């Protein structure tokens, strides 16, 4: 099983810079970015949570930006970023967490990981 998170930002130099500036001025917001990244790089707390999820629950977690996500993931999300989709063993994707559900975790990698664990246990 694989979880695929897609940020509400583009993976280009211009996209990264415009997001960073917009976020500093309150013009842009991506709750998934807030969970996984600090001001300049990936949060160590997120790496620890990701490792725990992969080790304990055997779920791979991969992230993309809007402009580099797989086409089937793009179709599933349908422009509603950020989001997390699940790719099942059969290769099909389905919505796992919506933007509002990710936002409810605040900027906490631990809350996000706990919510992932809770959903997978159901």
Highlighted features:
122 residues; Glutaredoxin; alpha+beta; 4-stranded mixed beta sheet; 47% helix; single chain
CATH architectural arrangement:
3-Layer(aba) Sandwich
- What's the CATH C level? Alpha Beta
Q: Give the percentage of residues in beta strands.
A: 15-25%
Output the strand order for the largest sheet.
2-1-3-4
SSE run: EHHHEHEEHH
- Summarize the amount of helix as a percent range: 40-55%
Could you please say which CATH topology applies here?
Glutaredoxin
Total domain units: 1
Structural class: alpha+beta
Number of helices in the DSSP assignment: 6
Radius of gyration, in Å, reads: 14 Å
Overall residue-averaged pLDDT value: 91
Number of strands: 4
What does this protein structure show overall?
- With 122 residues, the protein is α+β, with helices and mostly antiparallel strands.
- The chain has one domain (2-121): Glutaredoxin.
- 47% of the residues lie in helices and 16% in strands.
- The protein has helices spanning 13-24, 31-36, 44-57, 71-77, 99-103, 109-121, and strands at residues 2-6, 60-64, 83-87, 93-97.
- A four-stranded mixed sheet has the order 2-1-3-4, with helices on both faces.
- A hairpin with a 5-residue loop joins strand 3 and strand 4.
- The protein starts with a strand and ends with a helix.
């Amino acid at each position: 099983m694989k979880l695929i998170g897609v940020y509400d930002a583009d993976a280009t130099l211009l996209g990264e810079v415009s997001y960073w500036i917009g976020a500093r001025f309150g013009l842009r917001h991506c709750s998934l970015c807030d969970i996984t990244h600090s001001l300049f790089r990936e949060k160590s707390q997120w790496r620890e949570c990701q490792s725990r999820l992969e080790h304990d629950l055997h779920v791979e977690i991969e992230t993309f930006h809007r402009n580099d996500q797989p086409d089937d993931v793009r179709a599933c999300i349908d422009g509603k970023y950020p989001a997390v989709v699940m790719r099942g063993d059969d290769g099909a994707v389905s919505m796992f967490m919506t933007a509002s559900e990710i936002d409810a975790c605040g900027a906490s990698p631990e809350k996000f990981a706990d919510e992932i664990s809770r959903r997978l246990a159901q």
